[in-house]
Amino acid sequence: MSLRVADGIVDPDHAHGVVDSDHARLHELGYKQELKRDLSMISNFAISFSIVSVLTGLNGLMGTGLNFGGPISYIYGWPIAGTFTMLIGLSMAEICSSYPTSGGLYYWSAKLAGPNWGPFASWITGWFNIVGQWALTTSIDFSLAQLVQVMILLSTGGLNGGGYMISKYIVMALHGVFLLIHAILNSLPISMLSFLGQIGAACNFFGCFLMIVIPAVATERASPEFVFTNFNTENQDGINNYFYIFVLGLLMSQYTLTGYDASAYMSEETKDADKNGPQGIVSAIGIAVIAGWAYVLGITFAVRDIPNLLSENNDSGGHAIAQIYYEAFMSRYGSGVGAVICLGIAGLAVFFAGMSSLTSNSRIAYAFSRDGAMPFSSQLQKVNKQDVPINAVWMSALVAFCMALTSLGSLVAFQAMTSIATIGLYVAYAIPILLRLTLGRKTFTRGRFNLGRYGTIVGWISVLWVALISVLFSLPVSYPITDQTLNYTPVAVGGVLILVVLTWIFSGRHWFKGPIKNIDDSSKEEA
């Protein structure tokens, strides 16, 4: 991988004129500077790293890993998923360096597909991306509400000690409150949001290593043999094939590693964006993989009785990580207060993940509206006096709230809705990478961050991995298959695809022409 200045990219060390190199490059791409460019590489990285949020994904999905394969599925599955995710991130970073705009993936697709296919590619990528982003925010804030539910249960005695389990309606209300707070925070200037994002990244990073002390608290610990060789094949889901079990357990890791594309959407607010944006993507993945593996490795030493951790009748109501914490502190101190405090620390990391996710949502909504692709585009593309796309912020929060309303009717429907967060995002990740390898292979100009001769092979591996996990995410996770056990992921994703294609055929193709320049040629020459 090399870092060099390619044709068409302005070297910031030699930039002169009225505007700096970032403004000049944005002008070349057809846009005027409307958002405040105040983010450093660290700030850009912090937003993506907070959204990836190892503590959010692994804490919420630990039960899946324990159920399907146990320690082997995530101790070894995590680095496998992490390696392929890094390849995807490197491919995306290379394209981001060439096109550092808030439009991100859909802008890349438009340019790489060429004038004939560009509008359609942009339309598909953009809608999969933004729907996936909304689903991700919904999932994060709803998981935070559920975490509070478990904290209240354990702090009042646990399920078997007369503890209080708040209702699904209160969980929904908490979800709304968190979204409201996040929308308020996202209405602040980007400099304030940058500071909060760095706090969130620190909470996620140090929280992972702080939780590793849990085994030290426990009076009984798992043996190294259990941690590195135990393969749990005893699930209640009718799945007996060992490879199938491992694959389903692997998905816990892949579910967690999403959201790093946020660094691309923050490009128009990042200094030296064609270098710092790509580095934000890659560093967010790299540090998340390291911190996440340390976390799952450490916490597994506190795992004792897998069936009890997964039982809905345990003190945490079936929340595996909470039960691990609770059993560790109860065994040594006879009290679960320490467990509640640890869950609170994890909850703080989840809170900042939700805040950063909404930031990412608003920027892609702003950019997509700037190009006229969304309903009410003229309103959603507006920025306030603090250079914040305020309408896009509050619209995204409202959509995330509405998506969670499905949980009141059926958790199965809600899980289908939020499954789009993974498949939808990874489909959006893969489209521009595939286009860069096919239709755009002769026209793509590498930016300062590029993979050199390795770009093609890394790109193809990335596309094939996304195709593979898209199939794996759609496999049945329980037998026999009923309306309650059916994996609705392909139904949800297929529904989005059908809706997006139909709206293109009957409407979008008549007026959407892809990214629209909002700066005239004279302004570009002046810049």
UniProtKB/TrEMBL annotation:
A Gene Ontology term for the protein's cellular component: membrane
InterPro entries per the UniProt record, alphabetical: AA/rel_permease1 (IPR002293), Amino_acid_permease_CS (IPR004840)
Membrane topology value: Multi-pass membrane protein
GO BP annotation list: gamma-aminobutyric acid transport
Subcellular location field: Membrane
Statement: the UniProt record of this protein carries the keyword Transport: yes
Residue ranges crossing the lipid bilayer per the database entry: 41-62, 74-100, 144-163, 169-188, 195-218, 242-260, 281-303, 333-353, 392-414, 420-439, 451-475, 487-507
Superkingdom field: Eukaryota
Keywords: Amino-acid transport, Membrane, Transmembrane, Transmembrane helix, Transport
Keyword Membrane tagged: yes
GO terms, molecular function: gamma-aminobutyric acid transmembrane transporter activity; L-alanine transmembrane transporter activity; L-glutamate transmembrane transporter activity; L-lysine transmembrane transporter activity
Protein family (similarity comment): Belongs to the amino acid-polyamine-organocation (APC) superfamily. Amino acid/choline transporter (ACT) (TC 2.A.3.4) family.
Name by which UniProt lists this protein: Amino-acid permease BAT1 homolog isoform X1
Organism: Nicotiana tabacum
Gene behind this protein: LOC107761148
